[in-house]
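Example 4.3 (complexes with small molecules)
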Amino acid sequence: MPEKTLTYTQRMKWFHEARFGMFIHWGLYSLTERGEWTMFVERIPKKDYAKLANQFNPRKFDADAWAGLAAEAGMKYVVLTTRHHDGFCLFDSQASDFTSVKTRAKRDFVAEYVAAVRRAGLKVGFYYSLLDWRFPGYFMPDKHPESKEAMVQQYHAQVKELMSNYGKIDVLWYDGHWMPNFVEGVDLPAFWRSAEVNAMARSLQPHILINNRSGIDEDLDTPEQHVTASKAGRGWESCMTMGDSCGWGYIRNNPNMKTEPQLLQHLVTAAAGEGNLLLNVGPKPDGSIRGRERKRLKAMGKWMKVNGEAIYGSERCPLSGGMLGLWTGKGKTGYFHIFRWPGETAVVPLVKTKAVSATLLATGKKVRIKQEYNGRLVLTGLPKDPPDPNAAVIKIEFASKPQPMVEEDRAAWLDGKAK
Ligand code: GLC
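Answer. The structure with alpha-D-glucopyranose bound is encoded below.
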């Protein structure tokens, strides 16, 4: 089918299957070791900040290692910051001299990244920030209208370069369409002329998915640092850091790393709402990914090898996880993700549909099922201790798509007669 005629659902198909992606924040700011907002937060003059480019020569940059780690984690796509708010491009641009190709490193990291991600069989995403702190017209558009216009033109020109020079690109992940909080009353899509850029991007990459951060909704919602589902039918993806929420780029001392069960619960929560988790890493200035990020991703990958069928292509499942966890589903199959292991018996309340069989994915063993009063689906003969310290999944086959019991008489359960 010609790509130009693909429907939203068709374009979204791979994304819906994927569920788990890697976000990479890496650029000049990595050298500051204090996160990607350092230039602005510390008010570092443009000239001084630009000197970082003389030090930017990442010897351990190995795009295959990034892509390999993403694949090992069970991720299906990667999104890299091709250019963040500091304006430094990791790609070759005719619209700017502030790039890794024209400074010390003399490398097009985006080209290396695209090739490696493709080799690993994953989909390719580009993060691109509309705003660029180097332009006075961003902070005071009325006072510096030419600078504002130059920044907008840079956005248009660079998106065109990114969409033209690197082959097929799967996700265009915008950021930074907002104005500083002291600039009020701006019509954002008009300020950036985003409709024009997005139409151009789609004519060059007809299958592409575009997120909602150019001031226009486009294809994907992007809850940040929380996992909140959009309404059914709308694509969404939560992006999240492993460490403190203020920093996406490398922060040397970043003590609050989420634990493996926390990260997996976020992934399951996304899958339960038919959305994706875009989990961030902030590689070191030399390009390598720190051990504690690698360790977590590998653990997630190990879990996905056993339980991935409950995540990839997941659908919403209306059954209750009660106190124990959450459900995902696929047709007549329900997957009960148990975070708080109850011991030898687990109860799912208010199940209307007949359950046919159940298996514990961690062991491959059958689980005994019994359906009794109040729609209680009782699962017995489970191991006393959690079969997986992070989360265990019980796969249940139902006679039809699982449905909850609707309590017509809200007090009937007290007599064991809920229906
Ligand atoms: C925020 C930040 C930015 C980060 C992004 C990721 O918008 O400005 O630093 O890249 O979130 O979603």
